[in-house]
């Protein structure tokens, strides 16, 4: 008879325990909210004091929007896409509002700038205060772990090991490009029976030079089919990665099966060379294998993990191919639209390099106008036209605040700041009234580059400045020179309409290319 008593006592005890558990949970939740509130309040007060200490004022220039979460700003960008003139469309913001502006996309404060002082702060003077934000998850499926997806200590390590490689390459002579330049020239000669689009030739050329640089001799051992499969998948995966970057925190929305499969093909391609280099080392010893695979084996010495080596290689591939191809393509695009500039360049080349003579760095140094043409191409079409960083701690932008836009602006931890090198390079305040024209002479015998400082930064600046700058300039200079030398009648096909620079149709992925290609006759 006593049996039922026990469960009823147990039920009461359980009910009591559940009651005190709920009370405990409720207390915890309330404590959490109170703690959060106090913490947020404290951070806010600390940030306010930080802002006062630096004389910060609110940025009063705002990107106008009328829809909730500023969704109309996104819609206008989206609507401008089919015209393929998105960068030209965005110029109106800077023309009308000024070099700095605030916007509240999805309710979150963010900033846009083309002010060299602010860009210098982000990239250089306050470098430690800024991180990559959503770039890492956006690029991770394709690139994995490496210099473009890392911040802080891991980035420093990647930078150090890759810097060693580029330091070594700088002193090589231009012969490393010879075979690929010859392929480029013979490809162009074979196609020289009418209108030719140089752009795809340049992409093929820079893919060959970059793969050669990092994979060593072995690339030549792969058949054309394997190279083409890789190139197609690399193109597709890069294109989707650029979209994911634009989606920022919403990158996860775009991860299709096709994208994943393309990333896998790219990784396998790179992994194949890592495996080959390690096998060579096993069979023939470190010293001998290092002659064939210096880049891979040096990375392996440090990273000790084939997958990490593979990832760093893919990073360098993506960094090196499209950027340099676009530079060459825009340079020819501009030269054939300005025959007087092309003639001047050709005459300097002819006067310095005797016919049939091997081209060396010393020769290139004696053609200063080539550097002016490249600088001016970089100015009008910086290959990485826009970029973004996110504050990893509370910091300032030195300029843009207050009624006159001259005071520093407080940037709280977690705030994003985008900048447009493309639009900054078109500031009349830096380059004068002919800023939209192609005038390589502006770089001739002047100290313009020093004068504008961060106002000219095709390779960016500060601790993350491009590691392949010298390599890219060498290969582009050599290739442009060789094309101008080999094809003396290069010109714009008569049926092609000449538009003002910046008004032509463009394709914008991570890089900016001409949507019509670089057509010549
Ligand atoms: C005209 C050609 C090129 C241009 C305009 C260019 C431009 C840039 C820019 C603007 C950055 C900074 C990106 C950022 O911090 O968000 C960068 C970084 C980098 N570039 Fe280039 N690049 C070019 C060619 C190359 C080539 C040919 C290579 C290698 C073969 C290369 C390797 C790198 C690497 C490894 C970084 C990462 C540096 C870091 O984060 O520390 N680049 N490049």
Automatic annotation (TrEMBL):
In its UniProt entry, the species of origin is given as Venustampulla echinocandica
One of the Pfam families matching this protein, by short name: p450
The record's listing under InterPro entries reads:
Cyt_P450, Cyt_P450_CS, Cyt_P450_E_CYP52_ascomycetes, Cyt_P450_E_CYP52_fungi, Cyt_P450_sf
Protein name per UniProt: Cytochrome P450
Under Gene Ontology molecular function, one entry of this record is:
iron ion binding
Keywords for this entry? Heme, Iron, Membrane, Metal-binding, Monooxygenase, Oxidoreductase, Transmembrane, Transmembrane helix
The regions listed as transmembrane in this protein's record are 20-38
The cofactor named in the record is: heme
The UniProt similarity line reads: Belongs to the cytochrome P450 family.
